[in-house]
Amino acid sequence: MSTKNHTDNEDYYFNAEGNMVFTERYHLKRGYCCKSNCLNCPYEKKNYG
């Protein structure tokens, strides 16, 4: 389970491993699924690889 280390940016945070994780808010602002199996994707979940 990741620990959210929020910055002032509401579009992403860094998890415990230091990876940037985009928020659901970011995905909704983008407006479509990028098919990368993002952790917080609000769109229909599919297995893209």
Structure characterization notes:
- This protein is 14% helix and 16% strand.
- With 49 residues, the protein is an alpha+beta fold.
- The protein has one domain.
- It has a three-stranded antiparallel sheet with strand order 1-2-3.
- A hairpin with a 5-residue loop joins strand 1 and strand 2 (12-14).
- The model has no long low-confidence stretch (mean pLDDT 83).
Brief summary:
This protein is α+β, with helices and mostly antiparallel strands and 49 residues long.
Helix content: 10-25%
Q: Topology as H/E string?
A: EEEH
Total number of distinct structural domains: 1
For the largest beta-sheet, the strand count, sense and barrel status come to: 3 strands, antiparallel
Strand content: 15-25%
Q: What Rg, in angstroms, do the CA atoms define? A: 11 Å
Q: For the largest beta sheet, what order do the strands appear in spatially?
A: 1-2-3
State the distance separating the first and last CA atoms.
21 Å
Total of DSSP H or I helical runs spanning 4+ residues: 1
Q: What features would you highlight for this structure?
A:
49 residues; alpha+beta; 3-stranded antiparallel β-sheet; 1 helix
Chart the SSEs and their pairings:
Elements: E1 5-6, E2 12-14, E3 20-22, H1 24-30
Antiparallel strand pairs: 1-2, 2-3
